[in-house]
Here is the input.
Amino acid sequence: MTSFDEDTAISPDGEVTLTDRWNGSFGVPNGGYQLAICVRALARLMPYPDPLLVSGFYLRQAKPGPAQVPASLLRAGRTMAFGEASLVQEGKETLRTTACFTDLNSQNKQLFTATSQPRLPPPDECVRYSSSAPGAPNIAGRFDYRLAEPPGWLGGQPSGIPSMEFWMRFADGREPDMLSLPLTVDGAPPAALELGIVSTTVELTVHLRARPVPGWLACRAVTRHVTEGYHEEDFEVWDSAGTLVAQSRQLCMILR
Amino acid sequence: MTSFDEDTAISPDGEVTLTDRWNGSFGVPNGGYQLAICVRALARLMPYPDPLLVSGFYLRQAKPGPAQVPASLLRAGRTMAFGEASLVQEGKETLRTTACFTDLNSQNKQLFTATSQPRLPPPDECVRYSSSAPGAPNIAGRFDYRLAEPPGWLGGQPSGIPSMEFWMRFADGREPDMLSLPLTVDGAPPAALELGIVSTTVELTVHLRARPVPGWLACRAVTRHVTEGYHEEDFEVWDSAGTLVAQSRQLCMILR
Here is the structure.
């Protein structure tokens, strides 16, 4: 079993253990990891196979350890169904998610796109950002990231341009699917690091636009608006066939 | 009382009447109008003044007429609070919203922006899209829209470029505020009309980044990814002082 599948496994009575393997900064389980657990809980009870859109609000800081994942169907319609799921630790809700599921199989053909796949050298010709980098959190060890050149923030010189493009895949070779994409969109170092900003996710919305084929994912993370209190990050994921498979936006509260 | 305030008024026991004045296509109350009602219901019980982010899932088609707006606090923290609210008609939930509130007053200074305010001639030198246009829905009568030139779709010649910039304000002169912005982001003709696409909102997420000052709002609506089944629309709102006050993204299901 892969680390992702192992660490998002939910018992029949809705119990999960958040491991520390997906910790981001400050030893907190990554928000996308938490979101993926809720999506997996919903997938068990939804009448359609594909998560189409999921929104998660991070009500409280989660921590590694046991959690409950109550999930319920809100509405099943003719072409889509809606549900909600939460993460609960020590009786308190840490994450509230709402989601919509459908069957994307016949509806995923790309008809129009105004942005293009990130232009990156082949993964083998890129540089790696790895878990051995200074200050890298645990989650960096779960992915293989490949960039055209080392990001400025990594060398202590933020570029001032909060935009990053890179290849990404699970380090243990697990292929991407609709269940793992909600983690992927939050699984890379944030683009705001190029502004020297450290922040935490308030809310994350993921649009899942097509089922990914196996292989590397080409990703683009961009922050366009920063105020004293908050910034957003947009994230796009393209599969190895060049199809946009996920778009996400999150709002982050700036810590420093 | 302005039409917006009148038509989003909620009784002490959580009753509201959806009027037909905000109907979009097909005689269905506009999604942003519905969302604004839920935000207003939440504003009454949240310990912070400003909606910061709201996400709404359109579970069922709403219709003009009475509705209930149950709302509850999910968590009140030191700097922000979370809540949920629904629209319910005839015992069935039509809209499920989750939101986060905070006090934006001291945190709204713009530090970085990667996009600029739409470049438009002054409103007086623009053309109007009005409720007297062929096929215009009721909601078009509630706003004053001003464009640099008439959109292609309006003349039956979609431009093929799903991007629109325009001025917007309430036709009755009501000034924008944090309660009206969730309507504004969904209150204009969709950019996908320039592709000849007609669609309906599945989910709408609004980031409210600053309190708007009075005056015209400069807006930009862009659709970047269209598949056979769905497209997204991003919407930005800039106030008359040139501050980005709202960013939204919605996922739409294509009808034809």
